[in-house]
Description:
Layout: H1 12-22, E1 29-33, H2 39-44, E2 48-55, E3 59-67
Antiparallel strand pairs: 1-3, 2-3
Amino acid sequence: MAVHPAYQRKGVGQLLLRHQLDQIPDGLAVQLESSPEGQGLYRKAGFEVFTTFEIKGGITIPVMLKNYNKAV
């Protein structure tokens, strides 16, 4: 998921993420790869970094996980 810079920090990413998470059945885990800039949004939604990997050019990408339960 990506939000155009002109629309960042206006709640668009949060709305998109909530819509996607609402489609996931209870009890499943969700894994994603995040840019460093996106980590704050995902952390607020309950995701945690559980590993990272490095890509060409020395860029470190966090892999984030959330055990998803809509009741929480």
